[in-house]
Every structure is written in structure tokens, then in C-alpha cells.
Hints:
Blueprint (H helix, E strand, L loop, with lengths): L1 H31 L10 H8 L7 H10 L3 H13 L5 H9 L5 H5 L4 H9 L1 H13 L1 H17 L9 E6 L2 E6 L4 E7 L28 E8 L13 E4 L5 E4 L2 E4 L11 E2 L2 E2 L6 E2 L62 E2 L3 E2 L1
Parallel strand pairs: 7-10
Antiparallel strand pairs: 1-2, 3-4, 4-11, 4-12, 5-6, 6-7, 8-9
Helix pairs in contact: 2-9, 4-7, 8-9
Amino acid sequence: MKLVQQSMAVFLAWSLVVLGLRNGLAFQSDISQPPPQAMQQSPDQLQQLVAPIALYPDTLIAQILPAATYPAQIVEAEKWIQQHKDLTGEALAKEVDKQSWDGSVKALTQFPAVLANMNQNLAWTSELGDAYVNQQQNLTQAIQTMRQRAKQAGNLQSTPQEKVKSQGNTIVIEPAAPDVVYVPQFDPWLVYGSPLASFPGWYPYSGLYLDGPGIGFGLGFGVGLFAGYGWGWHHWGYDWHHDGRVVYNHNTYISNSRTIVNRNNFHSGRTNFDHGGRSMGGHEGFHAPRRPAAGTHTSAFSGFNHGGIARGGAFRGQSSFGGVRAGGGFHGGGGFHGGGGFHGGGGRR
């Protein structure tokens, strides 16, 4: 009887070992599988998302999209700009260069109204960054689609402030002068012909918004004084012909933001924004988020009440990171100040 009991104990022990090994192998098999992809935004949703910037010069878009992956730094930079309104030109560039922000965020200090608009519409900004990280090629196509629509509506053509050129099916927008950049003013929901539904909670920013269906130009921003800094205007570009990629110093830009979840490439539970090129500096003030549940669309600050306006639009999903509070909201503030001087000009077309 004792021998039978011992044999049974040995059998049960081995059974547990085998079961444990099998479960362990099954677990390893499970975690080796790629995570389910979250729901992506449709072409119509992406077109609505890029409408406020699609008619900007290519190089400015190349700075805006990476900067949008750092929403916390956008807030910090705008606050810093408001506290240093006395700085202009070379003095401004020197102080900006000392900051720990990503180069794309530093670059936008050359365009204070653009930076202030991104801060004022932070939910839109973070969703733009999310789309840039997770749907880069589709986002690029959306920008070109909106440019085609504006051109067909008669609202996109060359002016003394900018050059509009067609390269095959691609529309390129460049400043008319190498060291002076004019940011166009327009109503993003009317300028493309048929009226477009506005992004939920989006507020127009003074200096960038024009009431009516046309395009106007106000002050020009001098970018020559920023040329000596690694994040200056001439270090950026947009490659429309290779899946739509931002180019920084002749290399593909890589965002190191830990705020926006890269759902296309999870590795060891950490986000990885390696799009195959050079890495830039910049550290975000948030910890890497958890992986989103299957079937959900994520973007930072989604559902976030900014400036008293909560996000609408059920398709906009859930936040890609948790534990962030608006803290009473942030204020866009600002106006134009001299990143190398202003140049009058423009008018409306």
C-alpha cells in the first residue's frame, strides 16, 4: 500500500511538472504574438484632422507633426514663451537652444502663433501626433487630398508670399523667399470648397484664422537668425514620395516621445518609434503608457477638457495614456513676436 502511495505521489508530481512546462510554453507562444491592432482613423477623419495645417508650407508641416507627438512639451514651451516675451531674434534663439525640448518643439518657437494654436487646441494636437506615429502614409495622403480640394476650389495658388507647385500628383508649398516664411490664414472648415465638419472642440487662433472661404497672409516670420541652430528652419523637410516622412538633417526623423503610443511596433512592453532613421533628443514628462485594448482608437488627451471645451466625436476613442489632468486648462496666449523680425505683406486671395 505504501509503495502504491509513493508511486501515485511521483506520478502526480511529474504530471504537475509537465503541465507547468506546457503552460509555460503556451504563455511564451502567446506573448510572442503581435498585439491586436487598434482601430485606425478613416480617410475622412484624417482629412478633418489635417485641415487646419494642410495648406501650410511643407517645412512648417515637417516641424508641426513631430512636435505634436510631444503635447506636454508644447504646453511647456508655450508657457515659457509667454514668460519671455521680451526675447526676440538671436536672443530668443540662444535661450530656446538651452531648453530640453525636442528639436521640433524648439523649431516652432520661430512661429509663436502656430505654437500657441497647438497649445490652445491640445486635444487636436495630440491626435495629430497619434496619427503621425501610427498612420503616417495615410496622414500624408490626407494632406495632399486637402491641397487638391483647395486648389480645385480656387484657394491654393502661388502668391508673392509662397510658391505652389505640382510634381505629378503631389502639391508642394514653399516660401517665396528663402528666409521669410508667411503662415497662411484661413478657415479650415470652409477653404476646401464644400464645408467640412470642424474637429470637435477646435478653437480658431487669432492670427491664423480668416473668416470666409479664401486665404490671406499677415506677418512674415524671419527664419534666417535661427539658421545656425540644429533645429532651425533649413534643417527640416517633408518627403512626399517615400510614405510621407519628415526629414531632419537629411535623415528620417524619429520621435522619442513616450506620450503617444506606437501601436505598430511594441517591443518588450515599451513603445518604439523607430521609423528607420536618425533619432532626436527630447524627453516627455509622462511614463510610457500601457497597451490599449483591442479594437480601440487611442490618442493622447482624448476626452480632455482644454480651455473649457471637452472633446466630442465618439470615434475619437480613449486616451493613450492615463492619469493626466487638465489642471484648469492651459491658455494659448501670445501673438506674434520677432523670430528674426516681421515682414509686412500679404492680403487675401
